[in-house]
Every structure is written in C-alpha cells, then in structure tokens.
Design brief:
This protein is α+β, with helices and mostly antiparallel strands. The protein is 61% helix and 13% strand. The protein has 11 helices and 8 strands. The longest helix has 69 residues, at 196-264. It is rod-shaped. The two termini are 39 Å apart. InterPro entries: HATPase_C_sf, HATPase_dom, His_kinase_dom, Sensor_HK_TwoCompSys, Sig_transdc_His_kin_sub3_dim/P. It comes from Azospirillum argentinense. Residues 359-447 form the Histidine kinase domain. Keywords: ATP-binding, Coiled coil, Kinase, Membrane, Nucleotide-binding, Transferase, Transmembrane, Transmembrane helix, Two-component regulatory system.
Length: 454
C-alpha cells in the first residue's frame, strides 16, 4: 500500500471512530431525553385523565382527551391491552428496529382507578415520535458528516499528493546516482514542495551528487596521472633495457663470437697475443654479465621489492635504510619501529599493507634525497590494533603544509596518495614548523587474530 493510501486510510479510520463515538454519545443523550420526555408526558396525561374521568362517562372522556392532541399520549378506556402500543405503533416504520432497540425506551402506561378499585382509564406514554425525531436528526447529521468526510478525504488526497510529489523527483535523482550519473538537476527540483523533511532529504541528495561528481572527477584525474606514471615508468625501464642491457648483451655477443672464432681456428698452438685476447674478452664477458645482473636486479626491485619476499617487513625496512646509508654516507639515517601490544607487530600485516608501507617509505626516501638534500632522515612505523602509521621526516628546506600537497607533488606522490586512499587511509605531506618535510600516512588494518572472523 502506498504512503498516500495509508494516510487516507488513517484519516478515514479516524473519521469513522469519530462518527461512532459521536453516535454513541447522541444515543446515550437521546435515551435520557426520551425517558425524561416520557415521564413528563405521563405526568401530564395522568393529571388530565383524572380531571376528565371525574366529570362523567369514560368513553366521552377518552374522546375529549384524544381531541386535545396531547403529544406522546394515548388514552384507553379501561385496562390497557397486552400490547400497550396497539395501533399507536404504526406510522413509524421509518425508524429501524435496531435504532429503537439502541435507544431502549419502552412505552409507559399508568392505570387510573375509581373508588371501587376498577380501572377507569389507562394513560399510555409512547416514545415512537420522539425516537423518530432523534433518528431523523442522526440521519441528517450522518449525511452531513459523510459529505464532510468525503470532502476532507478529497482535500487530503490532493494535499498528500502535492506534498509527496517531490518524492518522484528524488527517486529519479537516486536512480541517476545508481546509474552513475552524478547530476541530479537543479536544486529547486529537490526542494521538497514545502515539506521540511523532504527538503532536507533533497538537499542531502543534491550535496551527495555533487560530492560524488567531485570524487569522480578526482578519480579520473588521479587515474590519468597514474597512467602517465605507468607510461613514464615503462619508458624508463625500456630505455634502461635498450641503453644498458642491450648494449651489454651486444658486447657479450661480440666477445663470445670472437672467443668462439679463436677457439675454432686450426692452429697447433695459440700465440701469446691470442691467449691474452681470449682472456681479456672472457673477463669482459664476465664484467658485462655482472653489469647485466645488477641492471636486472635494479629493474626487478623497481617492479617488485624482493626484500619483502625474503624478509619480514621490519628487516626489509632496515635493509632499505642500510642500502641508502651505503649510497649516501653523509646523511644520518634512523629507523624506529614500534608496536602497541599487537602479537606480530608490523610483520603480521597482510600482503597489501606490507607492500604499501614499504612503498611509502621507499618513495618518501627517494623524494627526500631528490628534492630536499637533507642531512637527517628518519623513518617511523607504528602499529596499533586497528591501524598502522608511517612517518618519514627530513630536515630539508620544507614543503607546503596541507592535505592538498599530495595532489600537487610528483607522480610518485600521486601514486602514494591513490594507494593510501584506495585502502581507506589518509596521507598528509607538509613542513614541520616550516623546517623540513614530513610525510605521514595512516592506514586501517584488521587486528591480528581476527582475520578468520572477518
């Protein structure tokens, strides 16, 4: 059942209960009024009947009393019949029997006796006329209430329809949001039609649509930047493979071919110069192979840090710091790993979080050395039950404070921001009091021991 029909049914039920209560009150009042009227009429009939009965013959007295036309009264010579209504009950067939039974006032009879104890005259007070008047009044009132109720239901139908009309526009806006169209239309279309609750709902949906549209634009921008970062990374790897790996492999090919030709020449014994050439070319091949091995390791580290596959996260971070310490011995490096009562510490994080923490530290260190030229660099990783924090700080020239700094940095920073945001975390990059740069990331994590429950 629709909301409109429910409201109309509720209004109709209220009107019906109001009508039933009003009818009950009217019937109770009518019962008391009819009884009082019958008692008063009976007293009047007794007084008049005694006066007429004392004057003469009873039949003449009955005729005289009937001519008076006293309302609700009927006079019978002698005793009253077994049915006190007699013929007086006719003429009121318009009153339903159930209504007369509800009023519940029966005819009242009083016998007037003579000095000898014989019944001379019976006075009967009949409530039929009074009950008929009450029935007519209630029928007219019920008809008026029915017309008023229908008019009220019609007005309520129109009012509820106009009040709920914005729901169709709100439903259409929600359908567009579900389809990925984050443009609900003008705010006036979701104004709520003067209903404050619907107006607040429409305003909230419009604001949600604007936020989703902004988030969509931001995702497209970040996606474009990530694609650019991937293309740049692939170009760098391709250039390294072409310039270094290709040249090294070509040199190995040349030296190996020369060694092969020297070994296949039909000479009884090689000259000293040929032996020296073979040894030199063999050493060159070994040197080129070592260069190729180092280059392949560097490319593989860029694609996937091998330390994480071989060591726990804490040791992998320590190895990363040691590697940078060997490259930049003039910089003071520090690593602080702390756990807050977790059983496995940072080593108990899942694969995605471990890789994210390592990449954050790796990219932050690269940016610190590339842009800041610091003398001190510190890496802090803290693990709580529900989150893990990574902070990389240096004492370089500084960086602009604010949450939007991540979006204005390089492609590496944009990649970090997108990775952290995808995991439901936050990333802030800025200066610490105008001195140095501080990269702080907070990532939610599932508490140790609850993975199975989740």
């Amino acid at each position: 059942m629709s909301l409109r029909m429910r409201m109309l049914a509720l209004i109709g039920l209220f009107l019906a209960l109001l009508a039933v209560a009003g009818a009950a009150v009217m019937i109770a009042n009518a019962r008391d009024a009819v009884r009082a009227e019958m008692a008063s009429a009976l007293d009047l009939g007794i007084a008049v009947g005694r006066a007429e009965a004392g004057r003469g013959a009873i039949p003449d007295a009955v005729v005289t009393l009937d001519r008076l036309g006293l309302r609700h009264l009927r006079f019978i010579a002698g005793e009253a019949p077994s049915d006190p209504l007699g013929e007086g009950g006719t003429g009121h067939g318009a009153v339903p029997g159930w209504f007369a039974a509800l009023v519940g006032v029966a005819p009242q009879a009083h016998a007037l006796t003579g000095s000898d104890g014989r019944v001379l005259l019976t006075v009967v007070a009949e409530p039929q006329d009074e009950v008929a008047e009450v029935w007519e009044d209630m029928r007219d009132l019920a008809l008026a209430m029915l017309v008023a109720g229908l008019l009220l239901l019609g007005a309520a139908w129109m009012a509820v329809g106009r009040a709920l009309a914005p729901l169709a526009r709100i439903e259409a806006a929600v359908r567009r949001l579900r389809e990925g169209v984050y443009e609900p239309g003008p705010r006036g279309g979701l104004a709520g039609g003067g209903v404050p609750e619907l107006a607040r709902l429409g305003t909230g949906i419009a604001a949600l649509a604007e936020e989703l549209a902004a988030a969509g634009r931001e995702n497209r921008r970040l996606g474009q930047r990530l694609i650019e970062a991937q293309d740049r990374e692939r170009r760098d790897i391709a250039r390294e493979i072409h310039d270094e790996l290709g040249a090294a492999l070509f040199a190995i090919k040349v030296d190996a071919g020369r060694i092969l030709r020297l070994s296949e020449e039909p000479k009884p014994e090689a000259t000293i110069s040929e032996r020296v050439e073979v040894a030199g070319r063999a050493r060159a091949v070994l040197s080129m192979a070592a260069d190729v091995h180092r280059l392949s390791r560097r490319i593989l580290v860029r694609l996937r840090p091998a330390l994480l596959d071989q060591l726990p996260l804490g040791e992998a971070l320590s190895g990363l710091i040691d590697e940078w310490a060997r490259r930049e011995p003039e910089v003071r490096w520090s690593l602080d790993v702390a756990e807050d009562g977790t059983p496995d510490g940072i080593d108990g994080l899942d694969e995605v979080l471990r890789l994210t923490v390592f990449r954050l530290a790796q990219e932050s260190l690269v940016n610190a050395l590339r842009h800041a030229r610091p003398t001190n660099v510190s890496v802090t990783v803290r693990r709580w039950t529900d989150r893990v924090e990574v902070v990389v700080a240096d004492d370089g020239p500084g960086f602009r404070e604010g949450p939007g700094a991540a979006e204005q940095g390089g492609l590496g920073i944009a990649g970090m921001a997108e990775r952290v945001r995808a995991l439901g975390g936050t990333l802030r990059i800025g200066s610490d009091g105008g001195q140095g740069t501080r990269v702080a990331a907070c990532l939610p994590c599932v508490p140790a021991g609850l993975e199975g429950v989740a």
